[in-house]
Specification:
Blueprint (H helix, E strand, L loop, with lengths): L13 H12 L12 H10 L5 H14 L3 H5 L3 H8 L5 H18 L8 H4 L7 H11 L9 H9 L8 H11 L5 H14 L26
Length: 220
């Protein structure tokens, strides 16, 4: 897919102003999925699909106590694994993905989570979003995670005109310096989760109010 420059109707310094505001107002941000290793982060991220991070964090302590390694998960009985992760929703599919990941990691990657996009997306249940979470958070690489929050905020801020996650990823990569990708995407995600909500955005207290030209913006 050929990258394109997002069509923006505002000043060329818009992205830099957005980044400056986000980094100034959100000095310290952290991954909200509790984990102690790349393996635990991979499991938690798979479980987070269509589920809140808070709910995942309630489930993973018991899960990791019983299944500490990829091999443990690979050898798990589906019904027992499903019972542990049921509160996260779609538990049958997620259990299948986790067991498949455990097997592939054990058989092909010596029990270690790989650190490349190609290898990560070869794992069952791992798409670009999950792979970028791993690259950026677990391995310290420059990565743009595009979830539903980033998608919404990026469109409202006119950083993209696309609904396609991969296209949005490319658009954000083009308008922000590579050394900002991971931190910027995490801040966009948290901004969408807590401020720029889908149905009732908190425009009055939004730090980005003056650089936001979304037609649905609420007056202060």
């Amino acid at each position: 897919m050929t990258p394109r420059t997002p069509r923006t109707a505002h000043a060329a310094d818009g992205p830099s102003r957005i980044a400056k505001i986000l980094f100034n107002t959100m000095a310290d941000v952290a991954m909200e999925l509790t984990h102690r290793s790349p393996w635990e982060l991979l499991v938690a991220t798979i479980l987070s699909a269509q589920c809140t991070d808070r709910r995942v964090n309630q489930v993973t302590p018991a899960l990791f106590a019983g299944y500490q390694t990829p091999l443990d998960i690979a050898q798990a009985k589906p019904a027992e694994l499903e019972a542990l992760i049921k509160p996260t929703g779609f538990y049958k599919s997620k259990a299948k993905y986790l067991i498949g990941c455990g097997r592939m990691l054990s058989e092909r990657f010596h029990g270690q989570v790989p650190a490349t996009m190609e290898e990560l997306t070869s794992l069952p249940g791992v798409g670009r979003k999950t792979a970028n979470v791993m690259l950026g958070t677990a391995f310290g690489q420059s990565a743009v995670v595009v979830d539903t929050h980033v998608k919404r905020v990026a469109n409202r801020l006119n950083l993209t005109r696309s609904d396609n996650p991969e296209r949005i990823e490319q658009d954000l990569q083009r308008v922000f310096p590579q050394n900002q990708w991971t931190g910027l995407a995490q801040r966009l995600l948290l901004h969408g989760r807590y401020v720029c909500l889908a149905r009732s955005p908190k425009c009055k207290g939004c730090a980005l109010y003056d650089v936001c030209h979304w037609k649905g913006k609420q007056p202060r």
